[in-house]
Amino acid sequence: MKFYAAPVITLLISGCTTPQQTPISGDFSYEDVRFVAVAGTAQNPVKFQHDITECHNMAQLQYESDIKNSEKLAKIYGQPISPEVFAKKRKAQVINCMTKHLTGEKAGKGWSLAKDS
Length: 117
Hints:
By secondary structure, this protein is mainly alpha-helical. The protein has one domain (about 30-115). It contains 4 helices and 3 strands. It has helices at about 1-15, 45-70, 70-75, 85-100; strands at about 30, 35, 110-115. Helix 2 (about 45-70) runs antiparallel to helix 4 (about 85-100). It is elongated, with a radius of gyration of 18 Å.
């Protein structure tokens, strides 16, 4: 009986959810933004899926925190902030995580914005 308790306790503590897989198309896109691998990085669909999912999950946590704290933020900024604003911020965070394009840092995950994005 004691051997069954550890897996059950672990499952209760960690939960049974898995990170959400972010849907992508074959052309390395996220929503309406296309990415290309930077020089020296293989343009691999598996790597892209891993990177975009990791970036999306990080941005999603911030989005959920922003939604939860939207009332406090409204008091700070003096007006309510719509969920659409937080969604745009989440998209920008994903792009920045993948490319570091918005902050001007070196390439994030080895991806760059495609010329037509």
